[in-house]
Design a protein that fits this description.
The chain folds into two domains: 2-182, Chloramphenicol acetyltransferase-like domain (Chloramphenicol Acetyltransferase); 193-403 and 423-476, Chloramphenicol Acetyltransferase (2-Layer Sandwich), CATH 3.30.559.30. Helix content is 36%, strand content 21%. It is built from 14 helices and 16 strands. It has helices spanning 6-13, 41-51, 56-60, 98-109, 146-156, 179-191, 193-204, 220-228, 262-272, 276-294, 338-359, 363-369, 373-387, 458-476, and strands at residues 2-3, 22-30, 61-64, 74-77, 87-91, 120-126, 133-140, 157-158, 253-261, 303-310, 324-331, 397-402, 410-411, 414-422, 432-439, 442-450. The chain has a seven-stranded mixed β-sheet with strand order 5-6-7-2-14-13-8, with helices on both faces. It has a six-stranded mixed β-sheet with strand order 9-16-15-12-10-11.
């Protein structure tokens, strides 16, 4: 039996009619390596049934609510768990190209998950050009973060078309406490909230200048510097500039996928200095600059990107679905020169990372603990609704870089040719999200956006390719 943390529950509270807090991935498969040359729903149902115990919480556990929302929900094994409830199949219209696939994934990503059952869904997509097949899989962020998502997917994958030997399923089935116990524990925690909130404030106070918007309040910087007694240089925490994708989002989504060569990125890194992540962030800065400039909407100061960072430390965080924080990083989109822009991205990332290490990223969890649970959901929704009218823009978008395995993997015997992450957009974090995943010699790019604000995110994929050409030329100059 385990319970959601306050941070886990925040992803439930943040959902509205236009915001769904699930993360997903699109795998493109070569099924010629399957035993029968194709992958069927029945194959995936059997695969999940056989391996659900390797990733129990995301796959077979459901939410159990606390009366009157007095406390965070609990997880328990769904007594009626059946993978067939979660696995579906669709076929693309001809010709089954990138546009048809992207439109299908966007529609799938618009659908919320059913909270009465384990919070995941898998869709087998047939009819891709070239005889390929795709798999779209999503899970709720309350149940899983990026690292746990990779571990869950790994439970379903093999190193060859032949399945590996599996350990026995000898785990005890998790059962949530009874309703009266949940109610009593919730009442006790509510009564103790004033004491716990003081502790949360004490833990968060030294790092308030890491929190977007809060850091801009007069005196916060001086107070946090005095509490920490460190000599780290200051980072500008201005409100993010307005852009066409920082407006209220709608219900519909648009999706685009692409890829870059990892070896080329490493060559650029070697020539220009920095890390692979520096190169990827610089590529994103250039692509966003081109997209905004094309629309006459390029701000005269940097965009602000939210960069998720895993805080997971082995078994210490095994009970938490989310062990994650976020860095706010300036992207030098306002600089016209490629060399100047690249150097600025490197410098800003290095500064932000040094400050982040000093704070351990604990402010995200501390912030989640400040609100009593009975008020957490309405407060989260109120904050989402109030952000736009008050012109509160802590960040412009999320940019995430997830390192993956550099060797081929197989799903039910089918070789995974590429894996494209599809994440979350919100009114607070912006109407576009760029996530990249390195796999088998490539950097696979997944972009999701609000269709009302960014109807063709494939333009950003094209601009990323242009940005790669620009950095390649710079590295060879």
């Amino acid at each position: 039996m385990s319970q959601l943390t306050t941070l886990d529950a925040t992803f439930l509270h943040a959902e509205t009619s236009t915001t769904h807090a699930h993360i997903a991935g699109l795998g493109v498969l070569d099924t010629t390596t399957c035993p029968e040359g194709r992958l069927r729903v029945s194959d995936l149902v059997r695969l999940v049934r056989d391996r659900a115990h390797l990733a129990a919480r995301p796959l077979r556990q459901r939410l159990v609510q606390v009366p009157f929302s007095l406390d965070c929900p609990y997880w328990e094994d769904d007594p009626d768990f059946d993978p067939a409830r979660h696995i579906f199949e669709i076929a693309l219209p001809a010709p089954g190209g990138e546009r048809q696939l992207a439109d299908a994934v966007a529609m799938l990503h618009e659908r919320p998950l059913d909270r009465a059952h384990p919070l995941w869904e898998l869709v087998l997509i047939q009819g891709l050009e070239g005889g390929r097949t795709a798999v779209y899989v999503k899970a709720h962020h309350a149940a899983i973060d990026g690292v746990m998502a990779a571990e869950t997917i790994a439970a379903l994958l093999d190193l060859s078309p032949e399945p590996r030997e599996l350990p026995a399923d000898d785990a005890e089935r998790a059962v949530a406490p009874g309703m009266l116990t949940r109610l009593g524990t919730g009442l006790l925690k509510t009564a103790l909230y004033p004491v716990r909130s003081v502790g949360a404030v004490v833990r968060a106070a030294p790092y308030l200048d890491e929190i977007p918007v809060v850091s801009g309040i007069p005196g916060v910087g001086l107070m946090t510097h005095a509490l920490r007694r460190d000599d780290l240089p200051k980072v500008s925490r201005e409100n993010a500039p307005p852009t066409p994708f920082n407006l209220p989002i709608g219900r519909r989504r648009s999706v685009a996928c692409g890829e870059l060569d990892l070896a080329e990125i490493k060559e650029i890194r070697k020539a220009l200095g920095g890390s692979v992540n520096d190169v990827i962030m610089a590529l994103c800065a250039t692509a966003l600059r081109q997209w905004l400039d094309k629309r006459g909407a390029l701000p005269d100061r940097p965009l602000i990107a939210g960069v998720p960072v895993s805080l997971r430390k082995g078994d210490d965080d095994a009970d938490a679905a989310n062990a994650v924080s976020i860095m706010t990083v300036p992207l030098a989109t306002h600089l016209a020169g490629p060399a100047e822009r690249y150097d600025a991205v490197r410098r800003d990332l290095d500064l932000v990372k040094r400050r982040f290490v000093a704070s351990s990223g604990s402010w995200v969890t501390g912030l989640a603990e400040l609100m009593p649970q009975p008020l957490a959901a309405p407060f989260a929704r109120l904050a989402m609704q109030a952000a736009q009218p008050l012109s509160v823009r802590p960040i412009n978008l999320i940019v995430s870089n997830v390192p993956g395995p550099q060797f081929p993997l197989f799903l039910g015997g089918a070789r995974v040719l590429g894996y494209y992450p599809i994440s979350v957009v919100t009114d607070i974090s912006g109407g576009v999200n760029i996530t990249v995943f390195s796999y088998d010699g490539k950097v696979d790019i997944g972009i999701v956006a609000c269709r009302d604000l960014v109807p063709e995110p494939s333009e950003l994929i094209d601009h990323l390719s242009d940005a790669m050409d620009e950095l390649r030329s710079l590295s060879r100059a």
